[in-house]
Write a structure and sequence with these properties.
heterodimer; A: D-Maltodextrin-Binding Protein, domain 2; four-stranded mixed β-sheet; B: 324 residues; MetI-like fold; flat
């Protein structure tokens, strides 16, 4: 065994001290480098590009992020893109799990209907916290989209994936039957008219799909002068106007005009060419066009005779989840960048509506969504309290029951309004 | 040495250094024995630690969380007592999911336990034929297909407008059926898919059990003039009862878990919660509505109910099992 004498110990200690001192020369620059390291912000969203995807199918959001990161040396900020799921609910679920571990993302795509859950349940921060930049951000947006994310006078996110439901139609089926789509789809009553019946005869099945219709149900109720929830967070779907609007759709079901299936089946039926009309977000335009083998067109939602249309928005806004002031500044830098001309031109290819003050080309097929926007679009119902998602699901179930004549419109609307108002303590 | 030993009449007491040596040996021996007795526990320790960490700790923590209205994130974590447990009994969706749970239990347990047994008994006589392998392959392959892939297949089969099932029905003059969107039919569609996915695995278990029945017993019975039915009733079936009991217990425990995949991918619990069950309700509470306290309360109920059912089966069912 090697014996350690006092002398050898002293020698070793001296050598170690010398090596330590020498190595500190190399440590110092590393420390400085760490100080100069970019501020990294994690952007958690649903638009990731699956591995192995062809370059032409790469999601535009990735180009926006790459473009921002290409200026990393100047901005000192790096955005890390994260997509764990294509479902908004799952993205929020992951966000919740990460926040629980104290390592939450900095920016998250939050569905409009979940705004209250994100505020109350996930500690989403108002953009006003970065007060020196809020004006610059707002200046880059369309003025009419800012109220959509404003709660209690604070701006809770940046409208970005901005959409509205529209109708997609198989023009070939209409042409084969010799029918002009406007004669069927301009008004709800037209769907019970002669042209609609002739088209139904031609296709031998239902004409229109409104499955999972909670989203368009809001617009349909509003277009008849009704509401789902008023500005005081009171559920008012038991109004005569909302009941009448819901009953009109139920009537379509009674006449065999409305398709009954799951959402996935309806999508397959439309793409497969057997269902003439299908509702979806305007953001589905690119995907549906790529999948369908027929001449696909888009159309505005029908109106109630003599009444203005008023649809709701949909999609998601970008919420700020950073709790740290430095990262919040970085988030604002990215948000401001993402609505600059060069970045938004890339994003605009995704098919959402233009939420900015910039002039952007309208993608052919997007016209109905802009018509909805010009007519005055409302926020999607911000289901109140942290249990909001559950309330939204209860309303969605009632809509489905009414539209399939499982329950009358009056009974369904009255019951659900009473139940929801009781749950939120109205 | 010889002289020394000769001079000593007996080995009365060891000298000092020898005593120390003996003591060392006995200490080492004792430690060795103790180590030997501890060895199994040491070997089990890593696995037990993992089970404690990933099975029992979440169980205990779920029980704890069920008394709070908390979502892991918010700073305030209000204690709500039994509110999460009492609240669900006023929730229509929970009651509907209980109804679904019961329906799946009543419909699927017999299907998943007896149908593969019947199939196994039919395939057993042709065990030397190539056809048995073909049948085994056909019946077992759905088990290894992922639900997400299987769902795409079934979505096309069930599609009301262009699905193969409705095409056939219409060709034979029947009405179109909304397989997944009619509340009276949808649960049967889920039953079909869940059974299709599970039967193959149980079939293999039964075939393996039949294979293990000693042939000499069967031969002795046939020499004594036992008919096929008598051999089945009195020899084969009693000897495969351990497998039958295993299939029964695991099916009762997991039947509502097994249908989760089909519900999630095909119907999302709809239409009008008609295909939901307690496992799907739990998932919705925790991962769609983010109500961790409520989801934990449901998980506690599921745990207690499952433990109770398993106890009942062992208490009353095991007496019919012949362990050879």
């Amino acid at each position: 065994m090697t014996r350690i004498s006092r002398r050898s110990f002293a020698k070793s200690a001296a050598v170690a001290a010398a090596v330590g001192a020498a190595s500190s020369r190399f440590v110092m620059p590393a420390t400085i480098a760490a100080q100069n390291a970019p501020t990294e912000i994690v952007f958690h969203h649903i638009w990731g590009t699956p591995p192995g995807t062809k370059e032409e199918h790469r999601d535009p959001i990735m180009d926006v992020i790459d473009l921002f990161n290409s200026n990393e040396a100047e901005t000192g900020i790096r955005v890390v893109s994260r997509t764990d799921s294509g479902s908004y609910a799952e993205v929020l679920q992951k966000t919740q799990a990460e926040m629980a571990t104290g390592k939450g993302p900095d920016i998250v795509s939050v569905p409009w209907a979940n705004i209250n859950w994100a505020r109350e349940g996930l500690n989403m921060r108002p953009l006003n916290e970065v007060s020196d930049q809020i004006d610059a951000l707002q200046a880059g947006l369309r003025p009419d989209v800012i109220p959509l994310v404003t709660v209690d006078d604070q701006m809770w996110g940046m409208p970005y994936a901005f959409s509205t439901p529209i109708l997609y139609l198989n023009r070939d089926l209409f042409d084969e039957a010799g029918i002009n789509p406007d004669d069927v789809l301009n008004e709800w009553d037209f769907l019970l008219g002669d042209a609609a019946m002739a088209l139904r005869e031609h296709v031998g099945g239902p004409l229109l799909d409104l499955t999972d219709g909670q989203w368009p149900a809001q617009g349909i109720a509003q277009s008849n002068g009704g509401r789902v929830m008023n500005d005081d967070n009171v559920f008012v779907m038991d109004s005569a106007e909302t009941i009448a609007a819901m009953d009109k759709i139920a009537e379509l079901d009674r006449e065999g005009i409305l398709n009954r299936s799951t959402r996935a089946e309806a999508s397959a039926s439309f793409v497969g060419g057997t269902l003439p009309v299908f509702y979806a977000s305007v953001a589905s335009l690119k995907g549906l066009r790529e999948q369908s083998q027929f001449n696909m067109e888009t159309h505005t939602f029908p109106v109630f005779t003599g009444k203005p249309r008023q649809m709701s928005c949909g999609g998601s806004f970008l919420g700020m989840f950073s709790q740290d002031a430095e990262k919040q500044q970085a988030v604002m830098e990215y948000l401001k960048f993402s609505i600059t001309k060069e970045a938004y031109e890339l994003w605009n290819q995704r098919g959402y509506m233009n939420a900015t003050a910039l002039e952007m080309p309208v993608v052919p097929g997007q016209e109905p969504s802009y018509a909805h926007l010009e007519e005055g679009i409302t926020p999607e119902t911000p289901w109140p309290t942290a249990r909001g998602g559950e309330y939204g699901a209860m309303w969605a179930e009632t809509v489905a029951r009414i539209w399939t004549n499982n329950i009358s419109a009056e009974e369904g609307c009255t019951q659900i309004a009473a139940e929801l108002n009781s749950l939120v303590g109205n | 040495m010889e002289n020394t030993s000769a001079s000593l009449p007996t080995i009365a007491r060891p000298r000092q250094h020898e005593r120390v040596h003996v003591a060392h040996i006995s200490l080492a021996g004792r430690i060795g024995k103790q180590m030997e007795s501890l060895a199994p526990y040491m070997l089990l320790l890593p696995l037990v630690s993992l089970i404690l960490l990933f099975v029992y700790w979440p169980l205990v923590y779920s029980f704890y969380l069920s008394f709070f209205d908390w979502n892991f994130v918010t700073a305030n974590k209000p204690f709500v007592g039994f509110d999460n447990f009492t609240r669900m009994w006023n929730d229509r969706r929970f009651l509907e999911s209980l109804n679904g749970t019961w329906k799946y239990f009543v419909i699927l347990v017999p299907i998943q336990v007896f149908l593969p047994l019947g199939l196994a008994l039919m395939l057993w006589p042709i065990r030397k034929s190539r056809m048995q392998n073909t049948y085994r392959f056909v019946l077992f392959s759905p088990t290894v297909i992922a639900y997400s892939v299987a769902a795409v297949l079934w979505l096309w089969i069930f599609n009301p407008l262009q699905g193969v099932l409705n095409k056939v029905l219409i060709d034979f003059g029947f009405e179109r059926i909304n397989w997944l969107s009619d509340p009276d039919v949808a649960i049967w569609s889920i039953v079909i898919v869940a059974s299709w996915k599970t039967i193959g695995f149980h079939l293999l278990l039964y075939l393996a059990a039949l294979e293990a029945v000693p042939t000499d017993v069967i031969e002795a019975a046939s020499i004594d003039g036992a008919s096929n039915w008598e051999t089945m009733k009195s020899i084969r079936f009693p000897l495969i009862t351990p497998t039958f009991f295993f299939v029964l217990v695991t099916t009762v425990i997991s039947v509502n878990d097994d249908v989760f995949g089909a519900i999630n991918v095909l119907t999302d619990g709809g239409p009008f919660n008609s295909t939901s069950n307690i496992v799907y309700y739990l998932y919705e509470q925790g991962f769609v509505f983010f109500q961790i306290g409520s989801a934990s309360a449901v998980s506690v109920i599921v745990f207690i109910a499952t433990a109770l059912l398993t106890w009942v089966q062992f208490r009353f069912g095991e007496r019919f099992v012949h362990y050879g």
